[in-house]
């Protein structure tokens, strides 16, 4: 579970990416009627590029984890797309099935009328290199966080996670969800402005700004009275909780074998 060293390494990874996937860059993106689906490996640098853009476009997505050694969604991805290559985007709103992070990023920006720095083609080689560097900070004594499968019991239905891509605490939870092959609806909760920067205890006391600066931040403020990430909802057990360490402990107790 995340400790100071884990959070530091995750922060260094986000720094290597210039904290991409932190802020919502557009408020005019069109929300799809049906959730997007992303067959994903948390530690994959190309998957990260797509998840960053999903945060910046303020788009929610159903994550179907496909860690190395996994059996729950890898065969399904191959049946849909013809190969086990990730990321794989499925958009049931348009009938689109798509590999390749660059193509997916272009598609998302064009289809959902959003603005994202990830759509800049000239910067893509740099983005791929820095995303690979960010993945290197996931190396732990036990292996790469969010890369390989752990035995688990599948949930009856998907979980929900409020998160934004560069959040060091959210990253630890997403890694465990991936390792356990637990599907979840990723509620992207990017920051809406500079007053959202910093931990809640510091931010709320210093700036006293509105908590509803983006769509999902408004939901958290209304339903929980605060905005802090990550926030997990498990409809299978009725569990709703903050704090990354508590969430990881809960996931291991409830689903890990």
What do these coordinates show?
- InterPro entries: GLR_AS, Glutathione_S-Trfase, Glutathione_S-Trfase_N, Thioredoxin-like_sf.
- It comes from Banduia mediterranea.
- This is Glutathione S-transferase N-terminal domain-containing protein.
- Residues 34-116, 157-257 form the GST N-terminal domain.
- The chain has 257 residues and is an alpha+beta fold.
- The protein has one domain (4-255): Glutaredoxin, CATH 3.40.30.10.
- The protein has nine helices and ten strands.
- It has an eight-stranded mixed β-sheet with strand order 4-3-1-2-8-7-9-10, sandwiched between helices. It has a two-stranded antiparallel ribbon with strand order 5-6.
- α1 (4-16) crosses α6, α2 (45-56) crosses α5 and α6 (168-179) runs parallel beside α9.
CATH class: Alpha Beta
The SS-based structural class is alpha+beta
Main sheet: strands, sense, barrel:
8 strands, mixed
Instruction: Give helix and strand order, one letter per element, not per position.
Output: HEHEHEEHHEEEHEHHEEH
Which features would summarize this protein structure in a list?
257 residues, alpha+beta, Glutaredoxin, eight-stranded mixed β-sheet, two-stranded antiparallel sheet, 10 strands, globular, Glutathione_S-Trfase_N
Question: Which helices and strands, and how do they pair?
Answer:
Blueprint: H1 4-16, E1 36-40, H2 45-56, E2 61-65, H3 74-81, E3 88-91, E4 96-99, H4 101-111, H5 124-136, E5 139-140, E6 143-144, E7 159-163, H6 168-179, E8 184-188, H7 200-206, H8 215-224, E9 231-234, E10 239-242, H9 244-255
Parallel strand pairs: 1-2, 7-8
Antiparallel strand pairs: 1-3, 2-8, 3-4, 5-6, 7-9, 9-10
Helix pairs in contact: 1-5, 1-6, 2-4, 2-5, 6-9
Protein name: Glutathione S-transferase N-terminal domain-containing protein
Organism: Banduia mediterranea
Domain GST N-terminal: 34-116, 157-257
């Amino acid at each position: 579970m995340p400790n100071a060293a884990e959070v530091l390494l995750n922060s260094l990874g986000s720094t290597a990416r210039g904290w991409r996937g932190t802020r919502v860059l557009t408020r005019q993106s069109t929300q799809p009627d049906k959730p997007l689906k992303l067959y994903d490996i948390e530690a994959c640098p190309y998957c990260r590029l797509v998840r960053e853009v999903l945060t910046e476009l303020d788009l929610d997505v159903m994550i179907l984890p496909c860690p190395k050694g996994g059996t729950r969604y890898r065969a399904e991805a191959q049946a849909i797309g013809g190969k086990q290559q990730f990321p794989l985007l499925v958009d049931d709103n348009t009938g689109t099935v798509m590999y390749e992070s660059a193509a997916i990023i272009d598609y998302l920006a064009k289809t959902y009328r959003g603005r994202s720095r990830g759509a800049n083609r000239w910067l893509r080689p740099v983005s791929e290199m820095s995303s690979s560097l960010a993945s290197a900070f996931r190396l732990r004594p036990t292996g790469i966080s969010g890369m390989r499968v752990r035995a688990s019991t599948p949930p009856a239905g998907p979980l929900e996670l409020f998160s934004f891509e560069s959040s060091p605490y959210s990253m630890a939870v997403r890694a465990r969800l991936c390792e356990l092959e637990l599907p979840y609806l990723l509620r992207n909760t990017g920051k809406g402005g500079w007053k959202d920067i910093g931990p809640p205890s510091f931010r709320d006391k210093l700036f006293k700004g509105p908590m509803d600066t983006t769509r999902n931040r408004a939901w958290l403020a209304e339903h929980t009275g605060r905005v802090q990430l990550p926030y997990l909802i498990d409809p299978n057990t009725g569990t709703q909780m903050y704090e990354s360490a508590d969430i990881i402990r809960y996931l291991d107790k409830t689903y890990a074998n």
